[in-house]
Design a protein that fits this description.
Blueprint lengths: L3 E4 L4 E6 L4 E4 L4 E8 L2 E6 L2 E5 L26 H8 L17 E8 L5 E7 L9 H13 L4 E8 L12 H6 L4
Parallel strand pairs: 8-9
Antiparallel strand pairs: 1-4, 2-3, 2-6, 4-5, 5-6, 7-8
């Protein structure tokens, strides 16, 4: 995506990158969209980078459509849909999704006795002190919860083994110019 300068049509919430601090971007503010992936936007505003969630896309004159998953006939959770949802979650500084970044260590769909499904995810971050960690986790929780028949999403944050560039997929390495 090429960078695009837009003017906010209304006040909107954002989080500074990489600190994760919440800010409000006023109406009629010039921002430069630097990344638009997975239904979220990274913008340059007043010399800082900030992430704007898809619910505020209209403030940028944009729309976001969530993936529409087919409902399995047996009422179960399609694990491929869970992985597709995870691939729609991006680090706001890196144009690579959390799966290709190697941040997802485990993902398991578990039914309970009531016939409801919980998705358990064990993941890490590129750096333990990443201020955007809570934002990335909530993005994952929201997008996976949109998969049909998913009742709960439980995410465990781990830092062992620590993340390294070796965990990047070949696709991610190519995107980042490491191949």
């Amino acid at each position: 995506m090429e960078r695009e300068v837009v003017v906010t049509s209304r006040e909107c919430e954002a989080r500074l990158v990489p600190a994760g601090t919440e800010i409000m971007i006023p109406k009629n503010t010039f921002v430069t969209i630097t990344q638009s992936l997975g239904g979220t936007f990274t913008v340059a505003v007043n010399g800082n980078l900030a992430r704007i969630e898809g619910k505020d896309a209209d403030a940028l004159g944009k729309t976001v459509e969530l993936e529409d998953f087919e409902i399995p006939a047996d009422g179960s959770v399609n694990e491929d849909h869970v992985w597709a949802a995870l691939r729609q979650c991006y680090d706001p500084e890196i144009p690579v999704n959390v799966v290709e970044l190697g941040l997802i260590y485990e993902c398991e769909v578990r039914p309970n006795d009531a016939g409801e499904y919980t998705v358990y995810i064990k993941m890490t971050l590129t750096a333990p002190a990443c201020g955007m960690g809570p934002t990335i986790v909530e993005d994952i929780r929201f997008k996976v919860s949109q998969v049909p028949a998913v009742k709960n999403v439980e995410i465990e944050m781990v830092f062992d083994p620590p993340w390294s560039n070796d965990m990047l997929s070949d696709e991610a390495k190519l995107e980042l110019g490491l191949l």
